[in-house]
Design brief:
Length: about 425
């Protein structure tokens, strides 16, 4: 799941809240079963949803052991470095493969596994459909969704979408008007939020809608799964990069009910809120604050206020660790993996991810203890570095190796280092 299809790739299984199992070799027999499951789902769709087949070559890999399994003979071309690190489309041997991390595939839940497969297979055809929203650097990274107000209005929007999915007639129309009001209230409070959210809505929300439609046993099952996803999303520690995995399914399935065929008309510039407003024939409820009372808004605000107090203490500790203390600073380039679950924004400095790995010309690092991506996206900081030898560094929860043509120099603060080209 992602779309920039490279270094910012997101491990899809982590997004929905599951910790990764220990590294293990790819089980060829089980992988073959998974390929058959995905083939069955995309053949069942038969190209009806998007007008083209979702079926395509798949590769499952484990980075730690270097083992892989492919749904068709592997190309003789050099294997992409990203394979085994991310769930994402990959160019390999001149064709697009849907790649999966072995540890991230749900082993004990076939339905969930199938939705993961369909999500990534859709990403492979997404550019062909023109459903890519380029990120406007001025729009920001949705850090407002880590704030009290941003989270409060997002959770209300999700609750209204879930209520609308489970209702019909006037009750559905009323819930849709509430969802639109909560969406508008959030965008009004945070200038640029609508543009920033739009990128993720299109790039990930449509993929998630696709996974529910093609990976469920009919429309009602898709609705039940989407409602469960909306409820589960509220428990997430961070919404900054994951919100569209809930919202996209909610908006998409409501549009299916109210405006069949909508997805064949959508473009990268389309707005979910505007589409649903037109399909339902309603506008946002006039008083968002009054509407919030219908969704236990008072208790929700109390909970978010408590979370905000706790979050400020967490941010202060992360600032001490990643901003004020000694760090190793490396270029953000190449490819790798990010666990976005629990990502925390340090205002003005960047985002701390709970786990991250990256490989590029400068070298490689594996930070299971966390890493800070700078606000401008240009660098990554790893805390408390210790130089082991000329090419090896380590710190609290990470190790790094510097590649040929690069060297380690003193950084901006005492005890800090920076990897630079020789």
């Amino acid at each position: 799941m992602r779309i920039s299809m490279s270094c910012t790739a997101i491990l899809a299984y982590l997004v929905i809240g599951h910790p990764p199992p220990a590294a293990a070799q790819v089980d060829q027999q089980r992988a073959e079963q998974y390929f058959k499951e995905a083939q069955t789902l995309c053949e069942r769709d038969g190209g009806r949803l998007w007008g083209v087949s979702l079926c395509g070559p798949m590769v499952i890999a484990d980075a730690a052991t270097g083992t892989i399994a492919t749904s068709q003979p592997a190309p003789t071309a050099v294997r992409p470095r990203e394979i085994g690190f991310v769930n994402a489309p990959m160019q390999w041997g001149g064709i697009t493969w849907s790649a999966y991390v072995w540890q991230m595939i749900p082993k004990d839940n076939q339905a969930e596994r199938g939705r993961l497969f369909m999500h990534e297979l859709f990403h492979c055809i997404q550019p062909r459909l023109g459903l890519i929203a380029p990120r406007d650097p001025s729009a920001g990274e949705n850090i407002h969704l880590d704030s009290l107000e941003g989270r409060y209005w997002m959770r209300l929007e999700w609750r209204a979408l879930a209520r609308a999915l489970g209702a019909s007639g006037a009750a559905r129309t009323s819930a849709i008007a509430d969802a639109l009001a909560f969406r508008a209230a959030r965008h009004e409070r945070f200038p640029g939020a609508a543009a920033a959210e739009h990128v993720v809505d299109i790039n990930e929300g449509i993929a998630t809608y696709t996974q529910y439609v093609t990976g469920s046993e009919g429309a009602q099952d898709a609705i039940r799964n989407a409602m469960a996803g909306l409820a589960a999303a509220e428990t997430g520690t961070s919404f900054v990069r994951t919100f569209a995995y809930a919202s996209g399914a909610g908006y998409g399935l409501l549009l299916d009910a109210l405006s069949p065929g909508w997805h064949r008309k959508i473009t990268g510039a389309s707005d979910f809120g505007q589409l649903l407003s037109a399909a339902a024939g309603v506008t946002a409820a006039l008083d968002a604050a009054a509407a919030a009372a219908r969704y236990d808004g008072a208790s929700l605000r109390v909970a978010e206020a408590q979370r905000d107090r706790e979050q400020q203490a967490i941010i202060a500790e992360l600032r001490r660790r990643y901003v004020d203390g000694p760090v190793l600073i490396v270029p953000r380039a190449g490819s790798g993996s990010i666990n976005t679950m629990g990502a925390t924004v340090i205002p003005g400095e960047g985002t701390v991810f709970r786990a991250m790995a990256n490989r590029s010309a400068w070298g490689f690092f594996d930070a299971q203890g966390g890493a800070l991506v700078s606000a401008d996206g240009e660098t990554i900081s790893l805390p408390a570095p210790v130089v082991v030898d000329a090419t090896t560094l380590k710190g609290d929860g990470w190790t790094a190796t510097v590649g040929p043509g690069w060297t380690v120099q003193p950084g901006p603060r005492p005890g800090s280092f920076r990897v630079v080209r020789q």
